[in-house]
Amino acid sequence: MKQIILIRHAKVDMDNSQKITSVLLKSWVDAYDVADIHLESLPPQELIDLVESSSVVLTSSLKRTIDSVKVLGIDIYEQNSLFNEAKIPDVGIPLLKLKPKRWLTILRVLSLFGLGKKGTSLKASKIQAQKAVIRLEELSAEYDTVVLMGHGGMNWFIRKVLMKKGWSLQANASNKNWGMTILEEIKG
Fold first, then answer.
1. CB under 8 Å, gap of 24 or more: what pairs does 168-175 form?
2. What secondary structure, in 3-state letters, does 92-132 show?
3. Strand, coil or helix: what is 155?
């Protein structure tokens, strides 16, 4: 049975406690994209076993996914920006200060309602996920188990597209750090 396994990267070693304005959020995200993963963020044994027994492992082109696979000691078959995290809308609210993770949550929800420029819109994220699924399905035609070390938001979009295409969600999906989502191809 063919499987596509979506995994969210390890915890990133970034300070999330300082409140910032939305104007400063882009700089915070840029720093997050190049930050190291947290040294104490270790995967569960079940994940390690699953990845070690997989046919092929993919990552986004962002450092945190690549470093997460390195922790597992597994070779990366392909790094591809198609699997990068969904963009967040850029808003300019200079006076309100929130923690970065709170901003990200709010802006992701707002993007679901259409907020965002062309490259950061819900439509753009859905198109990116559809292209990512095409690549995943190409590889699943050749390999039995395809693992993607990706990101919470984009993995969620990819999962939705795969399920619409007939892939079956196995057990519980998790978007937490080191969380797994396992999908199996349903033969018709």
1. 170/3, 173/6, 174/8, 175/8
2. CCCCCEECHHHHHHHHHHHHHCCCCCHHHCHHHHHHHHHHH
3. helix
Q: Is 167 exposed, middle or buried (0-12, 13-18, 19+ CB in 10 A)?
A: buried
Indicate the length of the chain as a whole number: 188
**DSSP, res 84:** S
pLDDT 10s digits, 61-90: 999 999 999 999 999 999 999 999 988 877
Q: How far does CA 67 lie from the centroid of its chain?
A: 14
Report, in angstroms and rounded to the nearest whole number, the Rg of the chain calculated over CA atoms.
Answer: 17
Per-residue pLDDT tens digits for 23-39: 899 899 999 999 999 99
7 φ, ψ (degrees, to nearest 5): -125, 135
